[in-house]
Design goal:
By secondary structure, the protein is α+β, with helices and mostly antiparallel strands. Helix content is 44%, strand content 20%. The protein has one domain: Glutaredoxin.
Amino acid sequence: MLTMYSTTWCGYCRRLKSQFDREGITYQVIDIEESPSHAEFVMSVNGGNQTVPTIQFSDGTAMTNPSIVQVKEQLAAIAAR
């Protein structure tokens, strides 16, 4: 399962969630404005910035503002291991 770090006002996050739903991709959403520890994680993978959406995959890798194609490619790569 994926973890999406998001905010309530992020349009890119809403778009990616919609694409996940359409593709049947299971994910968990964490609002970084409600969780300082998760905001710290987002900053750690984004050069100190709270950039969302940040996606964390089951293998620990992360992507920032990825396209649905990039997410599907990463999921396929993880599954192939």
